[in-house]
């Protein structure tokens, strides 16, 4: 068998049991659920980004390898899944921009948590923080991998194995689907791709009840062991028995990184516990005060102080209600003079308002009269301006007439002079022409 991959990242079962997540207090079931959840995010986002299956498979393998060296309590599963897909798109020569990856993961998170789909502003601080965290996590992945990110998938061996065994064509699609599902488990970091391909082929053949040659065991021809094939089938059967994976915030380093603001708020707000006492129905305000006090005391001290304070508040509220009920009827007698004084104040205020209205009316009339005067003055000034303009126009017309007369006189004298000069020029030209002709005839007799 010729190996073309750098197969240097395989772990034993003991190493997986003592993973960094287990050391941080995360149990095996939670770790398995988070691994499946992250691989689901990578698969779904790759479909939305229209990436080939090789990119999604590479991203899932990088995701499993990273969490074999780092804990889920240190790095949030959502941002690691996004960074793994972004890095895999570059490795498989199908790159996507960071903006596209962030928008797709933001939309998926809103739909998975039943939140209203909000527009993610590309110029907001949240988007810049998401982009910086995406590139930072990508550098962490490269650092943990030692920049050796070569991945060999079992998909390329499936077609060759099925063609060699002479199986029917419908077995190929089933084996391919099983290979895609195996990427959600830790099989890619436990066994070589050839062993996983043999286990997938065996599971697909058992499902379609297709016999495989056993007189010489067929798996030995493909450099695999029966124990490895059985473990692959067992892990796949356990995967299909699990419910749908859900996200659980286990990141301890600050607030878990999320792509939507509302999910972050819902995760950061603790669930308030109510006091187990039953207050009367009429004291809603007192009940709200009791719950606030109980929430404050729960963060500071124990539950005993909380219950004591709640009971004291209830006693005080009941005493105040009893005192209010047992008050004498002097209040009714006091209310009558109050009503009378209110009516007197109303009449006085009504008279003052009428006086103010009259004064405002007089002021408005004076303003209108002043405006009318200004209008009359403006009309007189407009008439005077029109008269001055007409007189100016008449003077301009007269000046133009005098100037035109002077120009006609000057043009008449010049015309006579020009006529005299033109006649002289004609005589001179005629004389010069005749003398020239005579000279020509003298010197050229042949003409």
If you had to describe this structure to a student in words, what would you say it looks like?
It is a single chain. The protein is mainly α and 447 residues long. It has helices spanning 13-17, 20-23, 28-48, 53-67, 77-91, 98-112, 125-145, 155-165, 170-182, 193-208, 226-241, 261-268, 284-300, 303-325, 330-443. The longest helix is centred in the C-terminal third of the chain and has 114 residues, at 330-443. The model is unreliable at 1-5, 268-303 and 327-342 (pLDDT under 50).
Record keyword descriptors for this entry:
mainly alpha, single chain, elongated, 447 residues
Helix fraction by DSSP (H/I, runs of at least 4): over 70%
* Strand proportion: under 5%
The coarse silhouette is elongated
Write down the Rg: 50 Å
Number of strands: 0
**For the residues shown, what is the average pLDDT?**
76
Question: Total number of helical segments?
Answer: 15
> What is the N-to-C succession of helices and strands?
HHHHHHHHHHHHHHH
Low-confidence stretches: 1-5, 268-303, 327-342
The largest sheet is: none
Q: What is the CA-CA span between the terminal residues?
A: 120 Å
Question: Structural class, judged by helices and strands?
Answer: mainly alpha
């Amino acid at each position: 068998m010729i190996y073309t991959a750098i197969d240097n990242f395989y772990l034993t079962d003991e190493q997986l049991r003592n993973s960094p997540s287990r050391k941080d207090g995360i149990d095996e079931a939670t770790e398995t659920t988070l691994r499946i959840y992250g691989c689901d995010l990578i698969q779904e986002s790759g479909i939305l980004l229209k990436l080939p299956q090789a990119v999604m498979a590479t991203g899932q393998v990088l995701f499993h390898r990273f969490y074999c060296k780092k804990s889920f309590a240190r790095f949030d599963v959502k941002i690691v899944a996004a960074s793994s897909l972004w890095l895999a798109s570059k490795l498989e020569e199908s790159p996507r921009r960071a903006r596209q990856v962030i928008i797709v993961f933001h939309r998926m998170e809103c739909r998975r948590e039943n939140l209203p789909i909000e527009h993610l502003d590309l110029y907001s601080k949240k988007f810049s923080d998401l982009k910086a965290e995406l590139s930072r996590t990508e550098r962490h992945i490269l650092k943990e991998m030692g920049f050796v990110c070569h991945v060999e998938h079992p998909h390329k061996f499936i077609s060759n194995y099925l063609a060699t065994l002479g199986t029917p064509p419908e077995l190929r699609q089933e084996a391919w689907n099983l290979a895609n599902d195996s990427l959600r488990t830790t099989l890619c970091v436990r066994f070589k791709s050839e062993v996983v391909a043999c286990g997938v082929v065996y599971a697909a053949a058992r499902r379609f009840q297709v016999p495989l040659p056993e007189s010489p065991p067929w798996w030995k021809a493909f450099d695999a062991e029966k124990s490895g094939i059985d473990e692959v089938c067992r892990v796949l059967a356990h995967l299909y028995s699990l419910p749908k994976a859900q996200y659980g915030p286990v990141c301890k380093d600050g607030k878990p990184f999320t792509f939507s603001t509302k999910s972050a708020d819902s995760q950061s707000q603790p669930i308030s516990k109510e006091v187990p006492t039953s207050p009367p129905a009429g004291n809603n305000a007192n009940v709200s005060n009791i719950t606030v006090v109980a929430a404050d005391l729960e963060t500071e001290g124990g539950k005993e102080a909380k219950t004591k304070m709640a009971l004291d508040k209830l006693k005080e509220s009941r005493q105040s209600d009893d005192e209010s009920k047992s008050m004498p009827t002097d209040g009714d007698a006091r209310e009558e003079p109050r009503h009378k004084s209110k009516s007197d104040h109303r009449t006085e205020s009504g008279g003052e308002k009428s006086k103010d209205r009259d004064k405002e009316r007089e002021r408005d009339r004076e303003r209108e009269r002043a405006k009318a005067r200004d209008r009359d003055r403006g009309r007189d000034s407009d008439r005077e301006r029109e008269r001055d303009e007409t007189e100016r126009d008449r003077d301009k017309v007269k000046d133009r007439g005098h100037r035109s007369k002077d120009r006609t006189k000057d043009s008449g004298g010049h015309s006579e002079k020009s006529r005299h000069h033109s006649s002289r020029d004609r005589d001179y030209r005629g004389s010069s022409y005749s003398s020239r002709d005579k000279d020509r005839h003298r010197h050229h007799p042949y003409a």
